[in-house]
Specification:
9 helices, mainly alpha, 203 residues
């Protein structure tokens, strides 16, 4: 596919990723727990799964099926509210030099996959935006073009959320009170986003 189209898409994707949302809130909270890599890795795996869904043509089917999209929206909204409530009740505190248990890293990886993979807004962005940057006359098949665009978005997410989590860890490690406050704010953000998803679907 044309390199210019890929670069243009990358610019648009970077702007979308720069807008704070549930991924940002999750990455910040994970950074405060010194679990930056598993958090970013989970988010990447979630968007990688979404890329495969869209490249295989299932994204259009889901977005065109009201029941499937409603189910995804409700499940994603409920999960964000649950995870945000959990963070508000137990805000992150930088553990200092303490080693993060392997079970904690795996749990964070799975949570990151759920945060991005269950995001119906993310699926709609993939379905609505990616096709605009494809070229039916290009030598690459359409599924391969969609996969390339999705992988570009996913790789950019990985870089951004690694930086966000590392910044949260580096800036707030020595400020436990501020870290707890920021953690609670990220939890509240998840609850609000999840609640908006539910209200949008149920009203």
């Amino acid at each position: 596919m044309p390199v210019a189209s890929l670069l243009t898409f990358w610019g648009v994707a970077a702007l979308l990723i720069a807008v704070p949302g549930p991924d940002w809130a999750f990455a910040i909270n994970a950074g405060l727990r010194r679990q930056v890599v598993p958090a970013a890795g989970g988010i990447v795996l979630g968007y990688l799964a979404m890329t495969l869904v869209v490249a295989a043509g299932l994204g259009l089917l889901i977005s065109a099926t009201p029941a499937a999209l409603a189910t995804l929206t409700v499940v994603g909204g409920v999960y964000l509210v649950w995870l945000g409530s959990k963070i508000v009740r137990s805000p992150a505190t930088p553990p200092g030099a303490a080693e993060v248990p392997a079970g904690g890293r795996l749990r964070t990886l799975a949570q990151g996959m759920a945060v991005s993979g269950l995001n119906p807004k993310g699926l709609l962005v993939f379905v609505a935006m990616l096709p605009q940057f494809t070229d039916p006359a290009a030598s690459w098949p359409l599924p391969l073009q969609l996969a390339a665009l999705g992988l570009t978005f996913t790789a950019t997410c990985g870089a951004v959320y690694l930086a966000v989590g590392a910044a949260a860890d580096g800036l707030l490690r020595a400020r436990p009170a501020v870290a707890r406050l920021v953690s609670r704010i990220s939890g509240v953000a998840m609850i609000l986003i999840g609640a908006l998803l539910l209200l949008e679907r149920l009203l």
